[in-house]
């Protein structure tokens, strides 16, 4: 597996995902994965500046959302098991889910504002 540092676009994407409400760890991990076939957690750690526990927590969240899949990779010798991760669906579909969630939050905020105005 070829390792590659985060590009400027990856960094901008991570920043926007964070502004959209994703945690820093999840945003960086997802941004790093978005244009890559399969990655391993050590590669994510090295190229995003996240620590191993941060990557593990991000992966757990991303798997729960159904956005990534995990594959066990055979490894020689002892040590931590190695897992390959890749997107479970096309990145635009993931963005649609994020957008839908944001639009729901906007609606909730608009309803709160409306209710506040009705009480004034």
TrEMBL record:
Check the record and name the SUPFAM superfamilies matching this protein.
Winged helix' DNA-binding domain (SSF46785)
Instruction: Quote the InterPro entries the UniProt record gives.
Output: UCP037373_trxn_reg, WH-like_DNA-bd_sf, WH_DNA-bd_sf
Taxonomically, the superkingdom here is Archaea
Q: State the protein's name.
A: Transcriptional regulator, TrmB
């Amino acid at each position: 597996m070829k390792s590659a540092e985060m590009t400027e676009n990856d960094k901008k994407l991570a920043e926007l995902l964070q502004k959209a409400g994703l945690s820093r760890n999840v945003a960086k991990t997802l941004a790093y994965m978005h244009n890559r076939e399969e990655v391993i957690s050590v590669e994510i750690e090295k190229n995003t500046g996240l620590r191993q526990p941060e990557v593990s927590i991000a992966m757990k969240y991303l798997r729960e959302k159904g956005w990534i899949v995990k594959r066990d990779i055979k490894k020689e010798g002892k040590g931590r098991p190695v897992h390959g991760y890749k997107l479970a669906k096309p990145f635009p579909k993931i963005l649609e889910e994020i957008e839908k969630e944001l639009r729901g939050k906007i609606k909730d905020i608009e309803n709160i504002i409306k209710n506040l105005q009705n009480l004034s």
